[in-house]
Design goal:
single chain, 402 residues, alpha+beta, five-stranded antiparallel β-sheet, 16 helices
C-alpha cells in the first residue's frame, strides 16, 4: 500500500497500482470528477474506488459513469464494505485486461477470493462462477454454467423464511436499476441437505461503451457461522432477560454494554438510556471503600461476591447481594465485568427485625431462654443468667436440665 497526495503523483505511480482509493473532502466534487477523468484517460482499465462524505452520496452515479469501479460513502467504510469493494474493483479491472494478462491469470484471481463470485448476463444465465460459489450452493461447479440462477431448487428466502420473488433478488434488482445492490441477507438451499445464510452484493457490468447494463457480477459470502453465533447471542440474551436476577455488563472503562430487563425493572432505567454510558451516570451503585480491592481481585481473574448498596432512578437506595465476574480474552486480560445481583431489601429488613427483637429480649430483666425439641438451650438472655447463675456461653448447647 502506498499513499499519494495528488493526481499527478497517482499518474506517475500507475504502473505499480492494482487499485486506486480516492478520498475526497466535502465540496470538492467538481475537481474530484476531473481527477477521475484524467486517471481514466491515462489508464481506462484502472481499478478506482471513490470515497466521499455522506453528504456527497448523490454523486455516486456520476463517478461510476466516469469509469470508477465503485463509490462508497464514509458510512459504507465504517460498515467494513471497503475491502469487498476493492476486491471487486481489482477483479473487474483484471477482467478488463485479460487480453494482456491472459484468461488463466484472471481466473486465478477470481478463484483465490474467499467469497463466491457469479457472473450472469442480463437474462440471468450463469456465464462463469468460481468454485467457492459452487460450494456455497452445494452443487457441482460445471453443472451451473449456462443455467439460470433463478432455479427454484435454490429457493432463496429472507431472514423470516419468506420466499424471495425474482424481482426482489439482488441480481435482478441490479440489472433493473443499473446500480449496485449491496449486502442483502438471505438463505439458500445448500445442496438439499441444509440451508446456508448468504450475504449477497450485485454490481452491474456494462457494455464496451460503458452504457447499457450487459450483465451482473454477484459476490456471495457464506455467513452461516456468523448467523448461528448471532442467534446464540440472541438466545442467551433472552435467557438473561427471563431470569429474575439483574445482570449488568461493563467494559474496562466502566461503560455499560449490557443491561437486562430485571435491571430495568429494579433501577428504573431502560437499557437504551444507559448503554454506552458510564455505570456511575445512572447512579447505579454507591461508592464503596472495598472497590479497589474488588477490582484488583477481578484483574487476577477471580470473582467477588458481597453486599453493596445501589440506587434507583428516583434516588432511593436499596441493598443488593452481587457477584462480579471478570470477562477475560484469550490472553487472560480482563475486557469487562459482568455483575449479577439481587435486591435483598426484604432479607435486610427481616435481619433488622431479628436484631431488634434480640436486643429487646436481651435487655429484659426477666429470664428468657429457648430450647429446641430435644431440650437443648439455643438462646439465653442476661435475665436468665442472673436468675439461674449460668452465663449464656455456659448454657447454650447444653440440656435445659442443668
Amino acid at each position: 500500500m502506498q499513499t499519494v497526495h495528488s493526481t499527478a503523483d497517482a499518474l506517475r505511480a500507475l504502473s505499480s497500482i492494482d487499485c486506486l482509493l480516492l478520498c475526497f473532502a466535502p465540496g470538492g466534487i467538481e475537481q474530484a470528477l476531473a481527477d477521475v477523468d484524467d486517471l481514466m484517460l491515462a489508464d481506462p482499465g484502472l481499478a478506482v474506488v471513490i470515497v466521499t462524505e455522506d453528504c456527497d452520496a448523490s454523486h455516486g452515479l456520476e463517478f461510476l459513469h466516469r469509469g470508477a469501479s465503485d463509490h462508497l460513502t464514509t458510512s459504507d467504510v465504517r460498515d467494513h464494505r471497503l475491502a469487498r469493494s476493492i476486491t471487486y474493483a481489482v477483479a473487474r479491472s483484471q477482467g478488463g485486461r485479460t487480453s494482456l494478462l491472459g484468461e488463466h491469470h484472471f481466473r486465478s484471481i477470481v478463484e483465490s477470493l474467499g467469497d463466491g463470485v457469479i457472473v450472469q448476463n442480463r437474462q440471468g444465465l450463469i456465464m462463469s462462477l468460481n468454485h467457492r460459489a459452487a460450494e456455497i450452493f452445494g452443487i457441482p461447479h460445471d453443472a451451473t454454467l449456462g443455467r439460470s440462477s433463478t432455479l427454484s431448487e435454490w429457493s432463496p428466502c429472507d431472514m423470516h423464511g419468506r420466499a424471495i420473488p425474482l424481482e426482489e433478488r439482488p441480481g435482478h434488482r441490479c440489472v433493473a436499476s443499473g446500480q449496485p445492490v449491496r449486502d442483502q441477507l438471505l438463505t439458500v438451499d445448500a445442496g438439499g441437505q441444509s440451508r446456508a445464510w448468504v450475504n449477497m452484493s450485485s454490481y452491474p457490468l456494462r457494455d464496451h461503451r460503458g452504457g447499457a447494463v450487459s450483465g451482473v457480477v454477484t459476490v456471495l459470502r457464506d455467513v452461516t457461522a456468523q448467523q448461528a453465533m448471532a442467534e446464540s447471542v440472541r438466545f442467551q440474551a433472552q435467557l438473561l432477560d427471563a431470569v429474575g436476577q439483574c445482570v449488568i455488563a461493563t467494559d474496562t472503562e466502566g461503560r455499560v454494554t449490557y443491561w437486562n430487563r430485571a435491571a430495568e425493572r429494579v433501577h428504573g432505567w431502560r437499557a437504551d438510556e444507559v448503554l454506552g454510558r458510564h455505570v456511575s451516570a445512572a447512579g447505579t451503585f454507591e461508592s464503596d471503600p472495598r472497590t479497589r480491592d474488588i477490582v484488583d481481585l477481578m484483574v487476577r481473574g477471580e470473582s467477588w461476591t458481597g453486599d453493596l448498596w445501589a440506587r434507583r432512578r428516583d434516588g432511593s437506595r436499596f441493598p443488593i447481594l452481587i457477584t462480579n465476574t471478570p470477562v477475560l480474552d484469550a490472553s487472560g486480560n480482563m475486557t469487562g465485568v459482568i455483575g449479577v445481583f439481587t435486591d435483598i431489601s426484604e432479607r435486610v429488613a427481616d435481619e433488622q427485625k431479628v436484631r431488634l427483637l434480640s436486643s429487646i429480649v436481651e435487655a429484659s430483666p426477666d429470664g428468657i431462654y429457648t430450647t429446641d425439641l430435644n431440650g437443648t438451650v439455643t438462646s439465653w438472655n442476661e435475665g436468665a443468667a442472673t436468675l439461674y447463675g449460668y452465663r449464656s456461653h455456659e448454657a447454650i448447647g447444653r440440656h435445659i436440665s442443668i
